[in-house]
Write a structure and sequence with these properties.
By secondary structure, the chain is of the alpha+beta class. 25% of the residues lie in helices and 48% in strands. The strands form two sheets. The protein has a six-stranded mixed beta sheet.
Length: 154
């Protein structure tokens, strides 16, 4: 019986490692800082049909934070995920287009971090200008959940 338990445990451990590696491989890190965001907000695209959403994570604490975001289309279908490593007292952002896997969409972006001091915001960036978009934020069981309720990328 002990041999069966040991074999089962080893099998489970062997299966768990590839799944974890596969899952983490799907989440690409995006590293854009405040200077990149300023430059993006200053330059209007030549293509008047281009619109994107910037998802911004601002870290109010000294402790670095890992933020993982996932995009969902208007029908609730998951499109893709990406992560940001936000330094203490720093800022990072990603675009809705980073999460869409090449698909134009209207939907929402959900982000999560274990650092409850991270604050999220969302900016609609298009040829006509920049606008703030609504963001919901709450802490649940030691994790911060940030939802940009309306995002677009086309």
């Amino acid at each position: 019986m002990k041999l069966f338990r040991l074999t089962s445990l080893l099998l489970l451990l062997g299966l768990a490692s590839p799944l974890s590696a596969e899952e983490s491989a799907l989440v690409v890190d995006i590293d854009r800082d405040g200077i990149d965001l300023r430059n993006e907000l200053d330059v209007r695209p030549d293509d008047r049909d281009t619109t994107d959403t910037a998802i911004v994570a601002s870290n109010l604490s000294d402790r670095p934070a890992r933020v993982t975001c996932t995009a969902f289309n208007a029908n609730g279908r998951k499109l893709g995920s990406a992560g940001m490593r936000v330094p203490g007292k720093g800022l990072r952002y990603l675009r809705a287009s980073d999460l869409g896997n090449g698909v134009d969409y209207v939907g929402q972006v959900r982000c999560r971090t274990r650092n409850e001091s991270v604050q999220g915001s969302a900016l609609l960036i298009g040829a006509g200008g920049v606008a703030n978009l609504p963001v919901l934020q709450r802490s649940i069981n030691g994790s911060k959940h940030i939802v940009a309720t309306v995002t677009v990328s086309f």
